[in-house]
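Researcher: Here's the sequence for the chain we discussed earlier.
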Amino acid sequence: MASAQELKRYRRHLADELDSAAVYDTLAHAEQDSERSRIFAELAASEREHARVWLEKLAANGVHPPPHRRSAKTRLLQTLTRLFGASIVLPTVAATEYADRDRYAHEPGAEKLSAQEQQHAATIQAIVASKAVRGKSKGEQIAAAESWHKGATSGNDLRAAVLGANDGLVSNFCLIMGVAGAGSSNRTILLTGLAGLVAGACSMALGEWLSVTNARELARTQLAREADELEHTPDAERHELALIYQAKGLDADEARRVAAQIMSDPDQALDTLAREELGIDPKELGGNPWSAAAVSFCLFSLGAVFPAAAFLWAQGTPAIVQSILLSALGLAAVGVFTSLFNGRSAAFSAFRQIAIGLAAAAFTAGAGRLLGVSLS
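Model: Thanks. This is the structure I predict for it:
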């Protein structure tokens, strides 16, 4: 008979596999590319087979778990996939698979499952990378495949959206609680909240605009310098490119052949050198500063609305209580979204986000109270 700890582990494995199968089923239905859709369906079937293994182990020990209930994180991934398509969640799924590729490495009798999980991680890695490598040279394919995890683990659009909304929510929540703690009138609190929303959103938008604009200007300068080097010292650039591909795994002769092939076309050479040597996408140059500023403004405003809204229809203590409740709801939503990136459960992430946000607001409310008493 398995121990209580082993049974707990079997239940966790069963739930994880069924959750993964549900996500892959949704990806298979949402994916427009028939080949990738077929792969997702096969991955879903494989995950269900893994789940059957753990279900049989539990049954062999007289344990018959109730019907599976999908986790909040799984439901969120499915909802995002249905609303925005497979691309928005693929980096998160790829990162999760990569992190979990060795989860059965020390599980007795699960050697086959462990090998399949590693294959799943490699498959999703290839799918994420494939969107960047179509029509490119062998050396560029290696570069894209190697860097797939950059998009999967950092800086993707979904993460930026969540963090932008969180900034607006927490900063305005603390500002409003600080003013409320000082004993200000409902009108003053509301005006402060709205002013904090507008000022913070404008600041975020300007900061994003400057950041993207400066990045684009720097990229243009670097591209111009690279084009000049390509024109005047092509042999040195070809040698640098060959060394880059050798570092990525090509043998010396193949690396030199690929580098020579790329250098035969000046436009392709500049594009490749910009990507490989400078880490710049010549077509994007860091994005559009105006759209980045607009998105930052909207996301910050969205978060900042939560703590201020209650003062539009309520006054005094009821307004403060409702503001706290609305802010806690917003913080919980942010926590659930962050669970997509941090590998923790949605419940834990939501609770942690609420606790930290309320603690920060309590601190500013106390500071406002002390300042209000001293000024009065």
